[in-house]
Amino acid sequence: MNIKPIETKNWQEELFSTLKKEGINQISFVPDAGHSKIINMAINDPEIRSIALTTEEEGVALSCGAWLGGHKSVLLMQSSGVGNCINMFSILKSCNFPFLTFVTMRGEFEEFNSWQVPMGSITKPSLELMGFRVSRIDSSDQVLPVTKNALVNVFEKNQKVAILLSQKFIGKKKW
Amino acid sequence: MVKRNGRIGKKKEFLDRREVVESLLAERENCLVVSGLGSPTYDVHAAGDRDETFYLWGGMGGASMIGLGLAIAQPQKNYNCYNRRW
């Protein structure tokens, strides 16, 4: 008989605790349904500083300042936000700063908003043009291994890494 | 009438940006400074180059948020950030 193990934690809780174990001190974000559980965990955790942004590029600069001050930071955003960040990514390149971002994808599976398609369709190549390593998560069993690998690449090898959470994985946005 | 050092108009009527930045930084103590690209970086450098300064020469609009990330990481320091408003 093939019995699936009962999942005691959802992937968001596992991801959040992995980031905490790594010593992430600052988590910045703009409001986003796909990231909402992790955003709320960050807001409610006294050991993590959560920073609400007015535009995603602020989170790139914040991450640079955090690193200069000895903190580790992660930016949570949507694929459309990647476009807003492009010029600010030049600080990462010029100063060789490490950088990690989780990107919820739009413009893919069951997207209802056509305006999300232009940026969603070029998110990965845009990041790669700015020197990022890009990983994609399509199922919950990929979350931890991909995240752990990214943490090594970012904070031990000074890389810029973006982890894309596919729209099919996140689930259709419900209003 | 445009003059050098960012002075626009008659000197009597306008602040001299470089002088203002110099006076703001004159008595800096336990202070980290972040400057935005272009004139803020030139002004801060002109006031005296220090190890405690992080100059931007790109990434427009990033200086304040770099300062915030730093301040959260090292709250015991004082901070001074210079951005240019267009």
Biggest beta-sheet profile of chain A:
6 strands, parallel
CATH architecture level-2 label of chain A: 3-Layer(aba) Sandwich
The proportion of residues forming helix of chain A, as a percent range, comes to 40-55%
Radius of gyration of chain A: 16 Å
Number of helices of chain B: 3
> What is the N-to-C succession of helices and strands of chain A?
HEHEHEHHEHHEHEH
What is the H/E order of chain B? HEHEHE
Using only C-alpha atoms, the radius of gyration of chain B works out to: 14 Å
Descriptive account of the structure:
The complex is a heterodimer of chains A (175) and B (86). With 175 residues, chain A is α/β, with parallel strands linked by helices. Chain A has one domain: Thiamin diphosphate (ThDP)-binding fold, Pyr/PP domains (Rossmann fold, 3-Layer(aba) Sandwich). Chain A has nine helices and six strands, in the order αβαβαβααβααβαβα. A six-stranded parallel β-sheet of chain A has the order 2-1-3-4-6-5, with helices on both faces. Chain B is of the alpha/beta class and 86 residues long. Chain B has one domain: Rossmann fold (3-Layer(aba) Sandwich), CATH 3.40.50.970. Chain B is 33% helix and 15% strand. Chain B has three helices and three strands; from the N terminus they run αβαβαβ. In chain B, strands 2-1-3 form a three-stranded parallel β-sheet, with helices on both faces.
Keywords:
heterodimer; A: 175 residues; Rossmann fold; six-stranded parallel β-sheet; 6 strands; 43% helix; B: 86 residues; alpha/beta; 3 helices
Write the layout of secondary structure elements.
The complex is a heterodimer of chains A (175) and B (86).
Chain A: H1 11-22, E1 26-29, H2 36-44, E2 49-52, H3 56-68, E3 73-78, H4 79-85, H5 89-95, E4 99-104, H6 117-120, H7 123-129, E5 133-137, H8 143-155, E6 160-165, H9 167-170
Parallel strand pairs in A: 1-2, 1-3, 3-4, 4-6, 5-6
Chain B: H1 17-25, E1 31-35, H2 39-46, E2 53-55, H3 63-73, E3 78-82
Parallel strand pairs in B: 1-2, 1-3
Helix pairs in contact in B: 1-2
